[in-house]
Structures are given as C-alpha cells and as structure tokens.
C-alpha cells in the first residue's frame, strides 16, 4: 500500500511560518517528541493493567539516538503505536490542524507568547519541523494483527503513507535534520536538552546507553515515605553547591486543582534579587519553565523547589495567566501552606524557629508587606528581636514594654537601632532608663516598621537617636533646668557660633546632669524618608534624597559643662563648646577627617591645660 495525499488544511505550507514564529526556542522539539513517546508508553501500561493489552509489554523505555553521518535524530518508544488510519487522524489532522490554528490565532503575538503555546495546540509533533527538513514516522500499533506504517512529510501539506517493515510494537520518529540546525546533531547538545526538560519524566529515557532521568522524583512520592535526608539530597540535586535548605513544604492537592511539588526555604539573607527564578515549573513531570512569575506569589519567588501542575495554563499570555482562576487559587493555596508551615514550626519548635529567624525574616516580612492575608497569618509568629538577643511576638513585646514605654498620649513607643555599634551610646542611654531596644537592620525594615505602625494599635517606632532620651518617649514629668532663660539663650548662641553649621540646629534642653553635655539627634521623620528612599521606597519621595541631613543638637543645661562654658571667657568657651559638640559627633560616628584631627589636637591641649 502506498498513499500520497494532501493534508486538508486551509493555510498553504504553514511550515515556514511556524518555523519563523518559534525560532527562539527550537530545542523544545525534543521535549515534545519525548513527551509523546512517554504518553504512548504510559497508555500501553494502562491498557496492560486494565487487561486490554495482553501481549508482552517488554522493556518500556524511550530511546533517543543521533546519527551524525546520516543527519538523523530518532525518538523510539514501545508504546501503543499507531495504525495507518490513526496516523492520518492524529498526525495529519490533529497535529496539522493544531498548527494551522496556531498560525491563525497567533500571527500577531510576540515570540515569547508563541513559545508558551506550542504544546497546547497539538503542535507538539509539528515542532519537529523547526529543526527537520523531513520527518518520518515508523509505527506499529499494539492492536493485534496491525500492519506497520511509514509516514513521511517535508513539512509542506503533502505527505506519503505506506506499509512498512517494523517487527516491534511502538513508534520511531526520525528527524532528518535541516542544514541550519546542525547544532542538534551534537550529542552534548541533545543531552543538555534532555537533562533540562526530561530529567523527571515518568518513563526511562535512554540516550547513548544511559538513562538520563529519575522516573519517580521526590515530589511524586508520599511525604510519609520520605526522610529529611531525602529532601535535602533532592534539593542538592536541583541546586548543586547550595547551602542546605532551612526547611521545606511538600505540596499535594488534587481538588479543586491539581498541584504537587516541594518548596524549599533557602538561606536568603538579603540577596533579594539573586535568588529569584529558582522554582521550576513542571506539567506532569515535563519541565516547562523556571519563570514562575504570576504562577507563584511575588514574595514566594524567593523560595526554591518544584511545582507540578497540569492545571496551569501555559498556552496563554501573561495577563490572562494573572486572571486565571486556577492560577489565583494555586497562589492562595501556596501562600496558605507556607504560612501554615511557619506557624507549625513556631508552635512546635519555637527555639529552632528563633534560630532560623535571621534567615527567614526577610522572606516573612516581604510576604507581610505584599500580601494582607499573609500578614494576618504571620502576625502571630513574626518575631521582633531585641538588642539583648531575645525574640518576642508582637503581642509579647507590646506587653513587655507596656509598663515603661507608653507616652503621655497613650502611644506605645517602640525603640529600635539600625546599627548597635554606631548607636551604642543611645542604646545604653535608653537601657539605663529601663527601655527595651529592638534590632532593625534588614533591607526591608524601614517599610516593615511603617507597616507595623499601621497595623498595631497606638504604636509608634523611634530610632534610639531620634531624640534626646527625655523626649524619645514623652512623659508628663519635665526636668527642671538649673539655668535661667537668659543663660539658656546665651548658651544657645554660644554653641551655634562655635559649631557654625546651618544643618545643625542648636537647642538647650534640661536633661539629667549625668546625661552627655551635648547630644546630636536626627528626627525620626527626616531619617525615615531618607531610609525609605535608599531602599527604593517610591517615586514621590525622591526629593528627600537631595536634602542634607538636618540634625538637632541638644545642649544639656543641667550638665556641669554648661556652667563651665557660661563662666569661661570667649575663647575658652568656644573651645569647650566645640569639644562637647565633637564628643557628641563622635558618639554618632560622625566625626571624621579634618574635624577628627582638630578634635584630637584640642583634646591634647585641654589635657595639658591646668
Ligand atoms: N510516539 C507516539 N506514539 C503514539 N501516538 C503518537 C505518538 N506521537 C504522537 N502521537 C499521536 O499524535 C497525536 C498528536 O500529537 P501532538 O504531539 O501533535 O499533540 P498531543 O500530544 O495531542 O498534544 P501536545 O501538544 O500536548 O503534545 C497525539 O495525541 C497522539 O495520539
């Protein structure tokens, strides 16, 4: 029997059009052909299980081979095979009509949108023509008494179908590689493609004598069968040379959508950008992409691992994906699972949760900032860390500071430092007052503080150096000043003149005698604007970046230095004022260069003086 015919489609010779449209990702032809071979093999397995196929199943693997001389790539399977009639139906009609539909629908879309849709229009088989000038199919159906068939086509609408010699059941697809696709005749290139897309396919794939895949990857197994070692081993296979993950979540849901996978919490610290695109997306164990944007909530993209779902539509554009009901549900499901897992570790192993906090806080905060539902779930296990190294939940901390840190307006004032070393003097001053100080030094913390102020009732945050200790948390009692109003004015003028800097606003304040003679502070509001801007807080605040710092210099009226300055002659007063101011700068870590040199010199003179 030999038949030649014309494939009944409307567009004449769609081959060049498809080839042009899809050029950016030719390598996926192999994924498509191997997937088809795997599908056919699995169908045979099911039929055998159901008793509908009673013949010898034999070794059910898929073999990929390359012959550089003959310029062919062959994908062979021992699956259900096709009769000549089935080839006509499935290849000529389904595969080709899919291709036509593709061309018509996606003529105007950009290349990346087209890459995504190739698998979804029965275009799978047709993708062979992206690299081959001619494709042959040799197939023999599992059905008893079937004759083997050979089909050949050059990608045009003409094909030839004839009986053939083929002893074994199954299908061989032979690609005659086109001149411009020589790269695919290289074994290393083919192996690379197989390892990328076929690494976890459920049927063994053999290439050059070795099996390249794991047929039962970890996520397809029952969590109850797996040990921690299994999970860390799999992680290291996915991401060689990475540090061990902190913990993981095994996802498994089949209603209302189908999703399996394992998400790992990596050690993230503050490498926000570096760690993205680490989640791999699979559809029934076939690798699809590692660009999971829109499928996974933004903040969860810091996680690593695999997701496998046949319900994620890969055939549509980005904007459609965002609106897709399944994708939204998957998003919510994953978010909830992640929050549940964190809550569980917090509940069951609080100390281990605290140990991991430095690695996961960035991620939790990111989630709380970007997803209200996640905030609601996380607010009971998110932690605040004090400079004393203790951890508190929001509730615990509010209770802790209730006695001492509520101001005259009933606001709870939470104090924090962004740099314990640099702000040491202020931290100590706060602690001496019986205040507790929190550590906030992460890249997201300025935003996080803003969020907490919105969410926590009657609560404000102040950095320890935002004001003099008496004013950090304003209480009814005000300290008496030992100076008269005239003396205060004189002191203010004297210091302003000595400091001689328009960004330093001098004021005289009645602090405790044992407090420093001069204290420099940067108002909370001002500093926050700058912090926010530094971490990219938003367009509207760009103007603050160009603002110079505007510090408040508080001269302590009750410190003995104030009296000494007032009593000294002009020259000595200026010297003392400068010295006291420089000491304050030193405490802020702001004394540098010329000013530092002057300070050291002046100190030596003062030491030498009677
Ligand atoms: N190796 C094979 N063995 C048996 N049948 C096959 C084989 N390859 C393809 N087919 C048949 O040809 C049809 C068309 O294949 P094609 O890859 O174009 O689309 P598909 O597999 O249905 O969808 P997808 O786009 O997801 O691959 C398949 O549905 C299948 O019936």
TrEMBL record:
Record-linked Pfam families: HATPase_c_3 (PF13589), HSP90 (PF00183)
Keyword Nucleotide-binding carried by entry: yes
SUPFAM superfamilies: ATPase domain of HSP90 chaperone/DNA topoisomerase II/histidine kinase, Ribosomal protein S5 domain 2-like
UniProt KW keywords: ATP-binding, Chaperone, Cytoplasm, Nucleotide-binding, Stress response
List of residues binding ATP: 32, 36, 77, 82, 97-98, 120-125, 171, 318
Stored InterPro entries: HATPase_C_sf, HATPase_dom, Heat_shock_protein_90_CS, HSP90_C, Hsp90_fam, Hsp90_N, Ribosomal_Su5_D2-typ_SF
GO molecular function, one term: unfolded protein binding
Domain called Histidine kinase/HSP90-like ATPase: residue spans: 25-167
Listed NCBIfam families: PRK05218.1
UniProt family annotation: Belongs to the heat shock protein 90 family.
Protein name: Chaperone protein HtpG
Taxonomic source organism: Solirubrum puertoriconensis
Lineage, uppermost ranks: Bacteria, Pseudomonadati, Bacteroidota, Cytophagia, Cytophagales
């Amino acid at each position: 029997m030999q038949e030649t015919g014309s494939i009944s489609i409307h567009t004449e010779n769609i081959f060049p059009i498809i080839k042009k449209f899809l050029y950016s990702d030719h390598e996926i032809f192999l994924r498509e052909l191997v997937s088809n071979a795997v599908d056919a093999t699995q169908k045979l397995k099911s039929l055998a299980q159901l008793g509908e196929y009673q013949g010898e199943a034999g070794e059910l693997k898929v073999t990929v081979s390359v012959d550089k001389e003959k310029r062919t790539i062959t994908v062979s399977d021992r699956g259900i095979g096709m009769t000549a009639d089935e080839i006509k139906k499935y290849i000529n009609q389904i595969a080709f009509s899919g291709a036509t539909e593709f061309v018509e629908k996606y003529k105007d879309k950009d290349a990346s949108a087209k890459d995504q849709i190739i698998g979804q229009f029965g275009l799978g088989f047709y993708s062979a023509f992206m690299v081959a000038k001619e494709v042959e199919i040799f197939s023999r159906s599992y059905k008893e008494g079937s004759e083997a068939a050979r089909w050949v086509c050059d990608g045009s609408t003409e094909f030839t179908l004839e009986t053939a010699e083929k002893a074994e059941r199954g299908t061989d697809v032979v690609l005659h590689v086109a001149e411009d696709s020589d790269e695919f005749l290289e074994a290393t290139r083919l192996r690379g493609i197989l390892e990328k897309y076929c690494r976890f396919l459920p049927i063994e794939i053999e290439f050059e004598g070795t099996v390249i895949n794991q047929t039962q990857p970890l996520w397809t197994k029952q969590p109850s069968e797996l040990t921690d070692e299994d999970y860390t081993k799999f992680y290291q296979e996915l991401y060689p040379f990475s540090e061990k993950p902190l913990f993981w979540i095994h996802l498994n849901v089949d209603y209302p959508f189908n999703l399996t996978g394992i998400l790992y919490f990596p050690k993230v610290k503050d490498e926000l950008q570096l760690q993205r695109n680490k989640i791999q997306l699979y559809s029934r164990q076939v690798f699809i992409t590692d660009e999971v944007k829109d499928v996974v909530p933004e903040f969860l993209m810091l996680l690593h691992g695999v997701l496998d779902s046949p319900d994620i539509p890969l055939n549509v554009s980005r904007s459609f994906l965002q609106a897709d009901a399944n994708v939204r549900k998957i998003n919510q499901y994953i978010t909830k699972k992640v929050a549940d897992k964190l809550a569980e570790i917090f509940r069951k192993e609080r100390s281990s949760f605290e140990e991991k906090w430095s690695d996961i806080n960035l991620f939790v905060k990111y989630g709380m900032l970007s997803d209200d539902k996640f905030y609601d779930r996380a607010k009971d296990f998110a932690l605040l860390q004090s400079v004393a190294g203790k951890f508190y939940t929001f509730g615990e901390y509010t209770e802790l500071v209730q006695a001492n840190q509520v101001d005259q307006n009933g606001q709870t004032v939470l104090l924090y430092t962004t740099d314990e070393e640099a702000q040491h003097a202020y931290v100590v001053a706060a602690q001496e007052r019986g205040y507790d100080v929190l550590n906030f030094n992460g890249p997201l913390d300025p935003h996080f503080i803003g969020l907490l102020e919105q969410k926590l009732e009657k609560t404000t945050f102040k950095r320890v150096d935002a004001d003099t200790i008496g004013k950090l948390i304003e209480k009814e009692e005000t300290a008496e000043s030992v100076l008269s109003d005239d003396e205060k004015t004189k002191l203010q003028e004297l210091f302003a003149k000595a400091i001689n800097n328009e960004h330093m606003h001098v004021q005289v304040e009645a602090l405790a005698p044992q407090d420093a003679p001069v204290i420099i502070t940067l108002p909370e509001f001002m500093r926050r604007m700058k912090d926010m801007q530094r971490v990219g807080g938003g367009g509207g605040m760009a103007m603050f970046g160009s603002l110079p710092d505007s510090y408040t210099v508080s001269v302590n009226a009750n410190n003995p230095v104030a009296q000494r300055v007032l009593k000294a002659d002009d020259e000595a007063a200026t010297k003392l004022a400068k010295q006291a101011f420089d000491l304050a700068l030193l405490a802020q870590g702001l004394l540098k260069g010329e000013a530092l040199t002057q300070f050291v010199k002046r100190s030596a003179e003062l030491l030498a003086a009677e």
